[in-house]
Amino acid sequence: MSLKINHDHVVTIHYTLTNSQGEVLDSSEGGGPLTYLHGAGNIIPGLEEALSGKISGDSFKASIQPEQGYGPHYPQLVQILPRSAFGDTQSLEVGMEFTAQGADGELRRVGISAINGDQITIDGNHPLAGEVLHFNVTVENVRAATTEEKDHGHVHGPGGHHH
Ligand code: ZN
How far does the centroid of ligand 1 lie from the alpha carbon of residue 150, in Å? Predict the structure, then answer.
């Protein structure tokens, strides 16, 4: 009997993620399948919901709105700073990431999203914020989580934590 994916199952999937332009953003091809603990918030909510009730061997597509993915893109998290604000960092490049303190005092990850001469645009949004995510998923395996995995909220062993 095949397990239907539900809370406290350890699920292994192969997936390809594309954006609305059809560009591949991420894929398990090459890097091996993704193994996660279902119901523990290990993956984005929209994908977890789409996987609920599926069994090993199922293949499906799911389009996930930003609210169920990496959230909306907040324009107030985008800032243009002069190059001099970066101290002696000579080799600034689009895509570089660092940690910055926001107005709320909270540390957040920001990335350089554009460079225009001495004007550096930094963006504190997740790189996939505001994107509709198109997943192509195949379920490789479903098993019950161990008590320890449930306690820890993540998977142990192949594809998971080793400790
Ligand atoms: Zn653990």
Answer: 9
